[in-house]
Specification:
Elements: E1 11-12, E2 20-21, H1 25-54, H2 60-93, H3 95-114, H4 117-133, H5 135-165, E3 172-178, E4 182-188, H6 195-198, H7 203-210, E5 215-220, E6 228-234
Antiparallel strand pairs: 1-2, 3-4, 4-6, 5-6
Helix pairs in contact: 1-2, 4-5
């Protein structure tokens, strides 16, 4: 078989040599090697333990055979999970889109079977046209669409980081929800990546460029696990927008111009440059010193208390 007609694992190829690969061949070989090791380790450990326990209740030969069968079954399950993990991870990354596609296909099929054609078209027009015409609903729908886009942009950016550093595994991008400033995404890091790697110079700018955003901030999502982080993606400044306040509508318009003001209010219409700047000279008053020995007074009848001191 020529190289141009060989099929790569989990991929397709044609005679022209243009390959469409879901999982790259080196990644598939690496996971197959890990799965083989896990199978034999599980077969040996589980088989030995199961045979030891089963030999207490039945013949040792039957116990050993049962242990080998149990170890082989568990090893095969673990082998299949490890080999299929790259494909399962791809399904996880595209799970919202897959669910939306299935809902659209089966919803349209059910609608066509239960209603006539004009009724189906009318319902679809209402479902699509009403959110598109109402501005708050349209902005909410677009915010959730941006959450789906950001998940894929982050995945591509993390793949570029790993390809550059030549170590680490792709993180699991968990949930994403819209915020007034952009999106918030929770990520579970895999071995080889840490929060410090993302906080290095230039990494946040790369994430912002990949997400088509203005700024990206990263922090730990909890105190228990260092691998659980949160990314806040900012693409607009909600506090910089002009907010229309309804308070001026409650101010009466029939207030006279010479209406009295509260004494606590500052003076209105005071022109400070017209006030002369008169320097204030402090008055130095000499401080009187207290006498050390108080003076004694003599009574009018000639009695002096100091004679008895």
């Amino acid at each position: 078989m020529s190289k141009s007609s060989q099929r790569s694992p989990f991929g397709w190829s044609n005679r022209g040599g243009n390959n469409v690969t879901v999982i790259e061949a080196p990644v598939a070989r690496s996971y197959r090697r890990r799965a083989t090791i896990a199978f034999w380790v599980t077969l040996g450990v589980v088989g030995l333990l199961a045979a030891t326990v089963a030999s207490e209740y039945m013949h040792p030969i039957l116990g050993g055979l049962l242990g080998v069968i149990l170890g082989a079954v568990l090893g095969a399950v673990l082998f299949a999970l490890i080999v299929a993990w790259p494909v399962l991870r791809v399904f996880w990354h595209w799970l919202p889109e897959i669910l939306l596609g299935l809902a659209a296909v089966y919803g349209w099929t059910t609608l066509m079977q239960s209603t006539p054609l004009w009724g189906s078209l009318l319902i679809v027009a209402l479902v699509v046209g009403v959110p598109a015409a109402i501005s708050p609903v349209r902005r909410r729908v677009m915010a959730w669409i941006w959450c789906l886009i950001v998940r894929h942009r982050l995945r591509l950016c993390f793949a570029a980081f790993i390809a550059t550093n030549r170590h680490g595994s792709l993180p699991l991008i968990l949930l994403a929800k819209p915020t007034p400033a952009g999106e918030r995404v929770w990520v579970w890091l895999r071995p080889g990546l840490s929060l410090r790697d993302l906080e290095q110079d230039g990494q946040m700018q790369k994430l912002a460029v990949a997400c088509w955003a203005n700024e990206v901030r990263v922090m730990r999502a909890g105190r228990k696990y260092a691998a659980f982080i949160r990314l806040d993606i900012t693409r607009r400044e909600p506090l910089a927008h002009t907010v229309v306040s309804p308070l001026p509508d409650y101010v009466p318009t029939d207030i006279p111009a010479n209406a009295p003001t509260s004494p606590g209010m500052p003076p209105v219409g005071l022109d400070l440059p017209d006030v002369p700047d008169v320097p204030v000279t402090p008055i130095d008053t000499p401080r009187q010193r207290k006498p050390r020995n108080p003076t004694t007074t003599t009574s009018p009848n000639g009695f002096d208390p100091s004679d008895y001191a």
